[in-house]
Amino acid sequence: MNIIRPAFLFPMLLTLLCSLLVAQAPTITSFTPTSGIPGTLITINGTNFDRDANGVVWTGTIPYRVVFPMSGGLTNAMPTFVSATQIRATVPAAAVTGPFSIRQGFTLIASSPGSFTVIQRPRINSFSPTSGPIGTTVTISGSNFNRDLNGNVWSGAIPWRVRFGGNLDVVPTFVSAFAVTAVVPQGTTSAQLRLVQNGTVMSTSSGSFTVAPPTTLRLVNNAQYDMVSLTLNGTQRFAQGAGVLVGSTVDLTGITAGTYTLVAGIGFYSANGTRDIWFRFTRTVTIAANAITTQTFAPLTIGQLLTMGAATRDWTGVFFDNNGIPHSARFRITSTGGWTFFVDNATAGTGALTLLSWPARSPTVSFRINNSVPATTISFPFATFLLQNGPPSWPLIQYVRQ
User: Which domain holds residue 155?
Assistant: First the structure.
């Protein structure tokens, strides 16, 4: 009779134990679905998913990973434990078609019985520029732009669209499998870009395209009359009959950014349609690209009215004293509303004008020289006014703009 000696029994038992432990390591028997796009959730069926590479029941965090092939290597997915016979994993973005496996560290535990087919849909990686006005051409970089919703290489017309904010779909221009271009459509709002085919979103950009305003000159008219003329470097920007009404705001687009000499004409359109300009304002304005540059025209002052755009202007009159001797009377008025009064060229007083009434579009304006002198009015064409501004013996003097 052969007797097994203990010295030989131990190695045999150790080998048997190791075989049993390996047999209890995770195995893959099937999976579903068998194809899909990156991001697809796969349900993996098998055995011993509650054990590690050594067949030991683990606790806490799953010690192994589901590993997919990728171009030039492998890419990992952290599985979700369901039971000892089932786990789930999401197909990584970089995965390609092929068998997948379960690995713990560098140890291969189990391989899938077949390949998972990765459907290569178009995918956005980045785009440029990330902001701009309507009409901007955006270059979108990514992969598989030569493929459709089902991963098939298309021919002829591109089958999918670029979706901008506001659910506005644009037919892109194909550049290559890695790039397309698309023009930002009217009505776009700031949002992420999407690639869409037949209502299915195939890819979404990580960042948003920000819609910048067009290069805009905003005109705010707070003057008492309509703005009927606007020239930039001598070019008229208002069509006949157009302008900025009293109290209104108008945006002018289609202007090239730069520095301009701006001349605004304030007045009315005459009955025959011609521009009746009463006041002109000249400014140097720098219009910024893809931004709103605002020019506000404040209410007119009595000083501006009586100087009609000049720094100073004289208003002269003549009166006769009780002896019938003529004398000259003259107001020198500044655009800021100050005045100096002269009698026979000798200074007789100074002060500041006070505006009393100037309704919108009114042809009549009321003002006062000072509180000791009665108020007076001036009417279009704003060339004369009458004023009793001397001793009671003085007559009512007609002052004429010089």
Answer: 123-211
The answer to whether the CB of 329 falls within 8 A of the CB of 316 is: yes
Whether the predicted pLDDT of 37 surpasses 50? yes
Number of domains in the chain: 4
Give the global pTM: 0.60
pLDDT at residue 391 tops 80: no
Nearest to 207 by CA among 296, 270, 128: 128
54 with 133, same domain? no
Task: Write out pLDDT tens, residues 67-79.
Answer: 999 999 999 999 9
Q: 277, 299, 321 — which closes off a domain?
A: 299
The alpha carbon dihedral of 196, 197, 198, 202 has a sign of negative
Torsion of CA 270, 275, 278, 283, to 10 degrees: 160
Q: Is residue 179, in this structure, part of any structural domain at all? A: yes
326 and 292, same structural domain? no
**192, 211, 230 - which closes a domain:** 211
Whether 112 and 129 share a structural domain:
no
Residue 11 lies in a domain: no
Across residues 24-43, what is the average pLDDT?
Answer: 96
Measure the CA angle with vertex 133, ends 127 and 139; round to 5°.
20
How many helical (H) and strand (E) elements, i.e. helices and strands, does the chain have?
Answer: 2, 34
**Which residue from 280, 304, 312 is spatially nearest to 378, judged by alpha carbons?**
304
CA distance 131 to 111: 47
User: Among residues 330, 331, 277, 308, which one has the least CA distance to residue 382?
Assistant: 308
- Residues near 14 by beta carbon (within 8 Å), at least 6 away in sequence: none
Dist CA 379 CA 104 (whole Å)? 96
Span 295-321, pLDDT tens digits = 999 999 999 999 987 999 999 999 888
